[in-house]
């Protein structure tokens, strides 16, 4: 089926179809690509380390430099709800893709894809940072692209019921509660814990052995000093002709033996 070009996109958007709340240029015209429209990040949801759901919203009244920035740690997953809402007539379907820059920055988009004719509402997509460094997501920036296709309209069949942004947010929050905050960490959490336990056990054993060896070294030195002192005293006793049995008794009493 034919893909809608820029002229047709602008005509349909001006008529109130395809895109609600589109980005506009200084002349008030919708900002449209030659055969697509770029969807902006409107709401971001994620589960933090304390299993609490966090929500951040795009503020259309602020400029790009004043928008909030959500930073995805390596392996972290977030839910992004588009600022724009789609409004597809019965003769148009859509396909949503992640923008090429996400792939270049090692960010994976899940569940982007086909949008049925008659659908009305925002799009929600999961993003996972597959990179080794944090990835910043500025609210209001274009992260997805939608391409529209004409289709043969169904005769007498009803399309999808409209879905509000509030309903999408509610669904996203419910899904986020059951989702991983960091899929790669959480999937291998047991294995990570096992390896850490083994590491700590090894460290503890090495410390015990080190302290034990240190103790025996100190004990050997004390024993050596004792016998050396005894030998010196014995030599003095021999010279002074003091009975050895008496000297040995003094030594044992002195050291508490």
| Count of extended strands | 13
Order of helices and strands, N to C? HEEEEEEEHEEEEEEHHHH
* CATH architecture assignment of the largest domain: Distorted Sandwich
Helical run tally: 6
- Strand composition percent: 25-35%
Total domains: 2
Please tell me the overall pLDDT: 81
Indicate the multimeric state.
single chain
Q: What is the CATH level 1 assignment of the largest domain?
A: Mainly Beta
Rg estimate, integer Å: 37 Å
Structural class: alpha+beta
Could you describe the 3D structure shown?
The chain folds into 2 domains: 6-181, Distorted Sandwich (Deoxyuridine 5'-Triphosphate Nucleotidohydrolase, Chain A); 189-255. It contains 6 helices and 13 strands. The termini are far apart. Strand 2 (37-47) and strand 3 form a beta hairpin. The strands form 3 sheets. Strands 2, 3, 5, 7, 8, 9, 11 and 13 form an 8-stranded antiparallel sheet that branches. A 3-stranded antiparallel sheet has the order 1-6-10. A two-stranded antiparallel sheet has the order 4-12. It has helices spanning 6-14, 100-104, 165-178, 183-187, 189-240, 244-255, and strands at 18-20, 37-47, 53-57, 69-72, 77-82, 85-87, 92-98, 107-110, 114-115, 120-121, 124-129, 135-138, 142-150. With 257 residues, it is of the alpha+beta class. The mean pLDDT is 81.
